[in-house]
Amino acid sequence: MEEKQNNTPALKRLFRLKQITNFQEEDEDSKNLKKVLGTGDLISLGVGSCVGTGMYLVTGIVAKTMAELGVRVPHTTGSAYIYSYVTVGEIIAFIIGWNMILEYIIGTAACASALSTCVDILSTGAISNVTSTWGDVWDSPPDILAWFITLVMMFVFVNGVKSSIQLNNFLSIINFLSWVIVVFVGLFFIHLSNWSPFAPFGIRGILKGAATCFYAFIGFDVIATTGEEAKDPKRSIPKAIITSLIILMVAYVSCTIILTLMVPYVELNEEAALVRVWAQIGYPFLQWVICIGAVSALTASMFGSMFPMPRIAYAMAKDGLIFRFLSEVNDKGVLVEMMSIGTLLAYTLVDGCVLILRYQTDQQKNYPSFISDTEGVDCGEEEETLDEQTPVSQLSGKIVLKLCFLALILIVIVELLIMDLDLLIPTVPLNIFICFVVGFLLLLIGLVLHVISKFPQDKQSGFVTPGVPWIPTLGIIVNIFLILRLFPSYFGSIHSLDVHWDGNIFQIWHQ
């Protein structure tokens, strides 16, 4: 085996695939994570991770594809890292794994900072007043309280997943009570005139805001990383993802509507809008009640950011991707946007994984679990689809894989052409030409997807994403579009971090 490994070309090893196997039987002598999480625990974890962040169209698309992957590769920890390892190769999984760890670290820092702000409000500014008198040692006062909160949360996790998930369930109950107060009390203070103008920044502002706020959608990854700890992952993960979406959509959208109808958006406090708004309408005592709910919600969200980090690292280490470099400081204020890109990249990979896996044979699970040295998927006997007339074959899987890459290239070209939406207004000859090219490329994409849809699919029992290949492709299109809406400087920042992190770790791994 070792001789075979040494004779394998280095480039081929970078794109080797992890086999889809029965992960429950992997490494029986090693210590695995305990299965203590039920469907209710996963729902609470997903809701707590996303509460107070936002909910957009793409979330529904991502949820369906993530749910199917949770069924196809159930007994694993690592979420999009494992899914990309199984589907597109080792080097891509390596990069995605570190991007996910990066986004969770930034999410933890953001939640800790927001928690510190809420506690400072409860203390009527006593904490910030003290730290602001510490001289000019730093450009801005250090957030000592945020550091302390992170330390406390670390000790909570040390006690084990069962006790920490009980704390998360308790916080979710407080979040629900806080939502009830905000919605039903806020109904008495709404003014429809506050929605005039309804969209002052137009479609550009909406799309830019959606792209920037996508960092909030890490709740799905949290649920997907619990595959090894869930009692029945094939049932619990899909149910938890879809149920969490429904709850979050109702809770967050209702809070947003009430908040913007109570006070014009330009007058909202940027640091703690949901808390400060009660003082703005003349009922300051209510901000103390809501602040307790805000602290609870932010604690649950911080819990959701910290929970998957060690699980992704655990999955990478279990696959032999050993790393030790774990520190990098960015001095630019682009952390939210960087995490948005990391999250969008992970979800784009999830959509692509569903699209590719649906048309591949599923004989890999007859093999023992190991990292394959082969370029593609090992196949035994061909497995028939549900209609038992159009079997999924290795040839059809390879053809679909090539068509998927062709569709991806066409999508990226279209997205680059329409980065400036004004180019779609046919007022000058250049714009007319661009509109013609975009229309032609969209027609080609539709044709490629139509051809893909005619190939046999491997539909397993359990949750299955409907509308393949159309729904995953729609998710990829919107994800890439949102990524391109961010400023170019964000790409430079995340590129420098990725190169520095991945380069150092990759050197250690291959030494």
UniProtKB/TrEMBL annotation:
Gene Ontology CC annotation, any one: plasma membrane
Main location: membrane
Keyword Transmembrane helix: yes
InterPro entries, A to Z: AA-permease/SLC12A_dom
Keyword Glycoprotein: no
Location within or outside the cell: Membrane
GO terms of molecular function: amino acid transmembrane transporter activity
Matching Gene3D superfamilies: Amino acid/polyamine transporter I (1.20.1740.10)
Topology within the bilayer: Multi-pass membrane protein
Coiled coil (UniProt feature): none
Protein name: SLC7A14
UniProt signal peptide: none
Keywords for the protein's UniProt record, in alphabetical order: Membrane, Transmembrane, Transmembrane helix
Pfam families: AA_permease (PF00324)
Residue ranges of every copy of the Amino acid permease/ SLC12A domain listed in the record: 55-334
